[in-house]
What does this fold into?
Amino acid sequence: MKYYILFGPPGAGKGTQATYMVEKYNLHHISTGALLRKEIAAGTELGILAKSLIEKGCLVPDEVVEGMIESEFKTVTGVKGFLLDGFPRTLPQAEALDKILAKTGTEVTATVSIMIPDEMIMERIKGRALKEGRADDASEEIINTRITTYHDQTEPLIEYYIKAGKYNEIDGTGTIEEVKDRIFSVMDKF
Ligand code: AMP
It folds into this structure.
């Protein structure tokens, strides 16, 4: 079983590219953001907790997303691997992931990081807001909080995966097709 991490700032195109990657490599896509939005829509206790945090642009507690990931690993079968999108987002989450995988004698296969400059993050998210209507895409203030959260809490993971020899960065600027081709040429190595 392969475990790929799709990494990058908000608006880098992770969701879009994930749809191509899961199809080509027979992977199960786990987007913690999408799972949380499902909980919100269903009005669960977890959804109620997540809603206020997500709408402020803050992260939900590590244990919440770690639990979601572990339960997906246990329940989904019939695929060649998993594509983690939006997880891990903090160092404790990355360490928890390593521990979860170690329980079954596995490890992260590779990290594919889609990089775009900060100026492009705002532009891309505003474009997505018109199509998807996500509450956390709605205002510049919330988007700025998410960018700051990314730099403060998520970016340190780059160093973590470089040290582990599992970091692969690709240029996320250009067309969807161009970015897809760059990703595939990295993924083909694993
Ligand atoms: P996303 O769809 O990946 O942009 O996630 C939307 C929001 O869900 C984020 O801004 C966070 O509030 C929350 N979220 C998603 N994944 C995580 C995670 N791994 N850790 C903490 N919060 C998360």
